[in-house]
Amino acid sequence: MAAPDLLAFAGAVAAGDIEVVDLTHTLTPEFPTIVMPPELGQCAPFRMEEVSRYDERGSAWYWNNISMGEHTGTHFDAPVHWISGKDLANNSVDTIPAANFIAPAAVIDISRQSAANADYELTVADVTAWEAQHGRIPPRSWVLLRTDWSKKSGRDYVNMREDGQHTPGPCPEVVRFLVEERDLHGLGTETIGTDAGQAFHFNPPYPAHYYMHGKGRYGLQCLTNLDLLPPSGSVIVAAPLKIRRGSGSPLRVLALVPRGERRA
Amino acid sequence: MTKPLQRPKRKDPLKKTRIPLLPQGTRSRTALGLTSAAAEGRFQLQVCSDCGTVVYPPRDACPRCLSARLPFKDVANGGTLLAETTIRTSTDVYFRERMPWRIGTVQLDAGPSIVAHLHGDLREGERARLQLKIDKSGQAIAMALPAEDTPNMADDPQWRELTCDPKFRRVLITDGRTAVGQALAEAVSEAGASVVFVGVADPWKPFPGEERLRKIERVEIVALDLTDTISVNECAGEFAARVDILINTAEYVRTGGIIDRKGLTVAREELEMRYFGLTRLAQAFGPVLRARGADGVNSAAAFVNLLSVYALANWPAYGAFSATEAACLSAAQSLRAELRQGGVKVVNAFFGPLETEWYQAVPPPKVAPSALARAVVRALQQGLEDVFVGDIAEDIRARLAVDPKALERELGS
Questions:
Q1: pLDDT by residue (tens digit) across B319-330?
Q2: Which fold has domain B170-411?
Q3: At A170, is the pLDDT very low, low, confident or very high (cuts 50, 70, 90)?
Q4: Which of A14, A208, B41, B242 is the most buried (most CB within 10 A)?
Q5: Are residues A32 and B229, on separate chains, in Cβ contact within 8 Å?
Q6: CATH number of domain containing A207
Q7: Selected residue of A25, A27, A30, A64 to mutate for chain B interface (largest B Cβ count, 10 A)
Q8: Is A134 domain-assigned?
Q9: Which ranges of chain A would DSSP assign to H, the alpha helix?
Q10: Is A3 within the bounds of a domain?
Q11: Which of B233, B208, B205, B177 is nearest to A33 (CA)?
């Protein structure tokens, strides 16, 4: 087999034959982070301190010190993030094989259901219905849940009520199905977690975290622009920071989409 | 009768803001005893331990028996105004722009006669109450008030020069998510503040009392996250020139000592909210406050810190928390010196455990948020620098004065 022509690939990107869609939210201090009960440890929000700005602190240069949690903003979850994945090989962001940071995507649209019901749970039936239209999900694919949740902001985005958060996500059965029957690469969502807002009350609790990370699969959260992607045919580039024994990291998530396939 | 204060007109944008000038602020070390009494609103003079003579002005030896034992003690503040005069001209730049200014001699029942600033409702020959107040230079002066309260007496211009009354001033409550923040918003609104800006962080997170807070008269919610430098700077950029009194209600209460807490995550959050929060507010709002210390009826007047009394002596059950509060107290002392250049007071309100969720396991007496709020408003109206709110705070203050080491040991058992 002849070597792939990467120059042609680069040329296609430059010419716009392959479009690059940014699936990342801008890192800002205001962007909500996951909230735990106040007596538990909390994920730090994004913060930025100016080091100098062409001033007495550094006359010709502008730069900042930044701080945040590993799970702040648009971020990647490594298997070691969850207790079910704690003993796996190559389970942290620094040891995951670099090739795993590039994989195809299947985009399942449950935006209509989610608009009607904030607690909508993706089912196996939703997946098989998608496959009836677009074909079987190829092995080692990201499944991206399009809910249009990224179009909401503030209170509506987090949707915190007295009994917790209400945001859509997968039911336990569909995660197991995707991991075991479809060899899922990972799950990507527009909400703050890969799990539904109420997933603490599922069995097992937080099934996406439990099953996916237990099998060494990955998560992407707080994605945006999923509505621009075709149901199939796009490729995701998502490489987290190489943090020693890191459980995840904020990152830039890019989707490569063939010309004409990009929505809207 | 004092003429009631009129709501100040909006400022003429073509007029220069006057530089805050200060009255003469040099005192002898001994005379600073008056300043410490004034800071807490006490009336204290030196009383000779040997012959009982009440001494004024402060001296190093008793003028009657030459004893060097002259501690400051609480003294009855009643007296009679013997003579008064109105100063109409002065070479002192501070008083020059505040003329006319009434002063007089008060014969104290306790003994000495004292030259004092006079409240407008007090006339020669009348009975008077003498108070020690902190002036714009941060030093004690004596002010004579009528024996009985008179209508609108707090509106007297010479009195208002010594206080930080919220009336017709614009107040910023930095954190409206807390019970104390909400109680303070209500209290300063009732005290006649013309606007009450209330900072709310993480607006996407609902919080108890929110609906009620929004309904308080003259409350305006503003985006303000004390843990975020950008947010504090943006809030100051928009509102600092309209903030006359800043009340920092940021709160972070967690139990545990230094060893007990695993890791630094909680300690960092605590410092971000409290120590760095205070630093951010000081850097963002301080320069504007300091520049507006003489800006008319609604001049910048005060920066208020709410501090746990365990800032003064560590309570190991809340040990890491106490350490953070101590850092805030130290910062507040620096801030006091820095803001004094603009005639702006730093008010520290010390309190014991509050009647709030984070002190759930602590037995009473505890301080109700509304009681703390009332004490802060009173401190502003009286122009105090340090207030101790509730039994625990007063107890710690008293024990600290007697034997700091004994207090440390007792708090640690």
A1: 999 999 999 999
A2: Rossmann fold (3.40.50)
A3: very high
A4: A208
A5: no
A6: 3.50.30.50
A7: A30
A8: yes
A9: 6-15, 111-116, 124-134, 154-158, 172-182, 207, 213-214
A10: no
A11: B205
Dihedral over Cα of B42, B47, B52, B56: its sign? negative
Q: Does the pLDDT value for residue A2 go beyond 90?
A: no
A233 interface with B at CB cutoff 8 Å: no
Report residue A18 as tokens: 């392959």
Which pTM was predicted? Answer: 0.96
- Residue B173 — φ and ψ, nearest 5°? -95, 120
Q: Residue B360: what pLDDT?
A: 96
Six-digit token string for B342: 């603009």
Note whether residue A5 is domain-resident.
no
Compute the Cα dihedral for B336, B338, B340, B345 and give only its sign.
negative
**Sequence-distant (≥ 6) Cβ neighbours of residue A192 within 8 angstroms:** A32, A33, A34, A158, A165, A167, A221, A222
What's the mean pLDDT in B156-160? 97
Q: For the segment B53-101, what is each residue's pLDDT rounded down to a tens digit?
A: 999 999 999 999 999 999 999 999 999 999 999 999 999 999 999 999 9
Structural domains in chain A (count):
1
A48 interaction partners in chain B (CB closer than 8 Å): 229-230
A47 CB neighbours in chain B (<8 A) are 227-229
What is the value of ipTM here, to two decimals?
Answer: 0.93
Restricting to B residues 214-243, those with a Cβ less than 8 Å away from any Cβ of A are 225, 227-231
Distance from CA of B204 to the nearest CA of A (A): 4
Neighbours of B50 (CB within 10 A): 13
How far does the CA of residue B392 sit from the closest CA of chain A (Å)?
Answer: 25
Residues of chain A neighbouring B229 (CB-CB closer than 8 A): 47-50
**Would the CB atoms of B205 and A48 count as touching at under 8 Å?**
no
Domain ranges, residue A138:
17-258
Chain B interface includes A68 (CB < 8 A): no
Number of A to B CB contacts under 8 A, please give it.
39
Span B108-136, pLDDT tens digits: 999 999 999 999 999 999 999 999 999 99
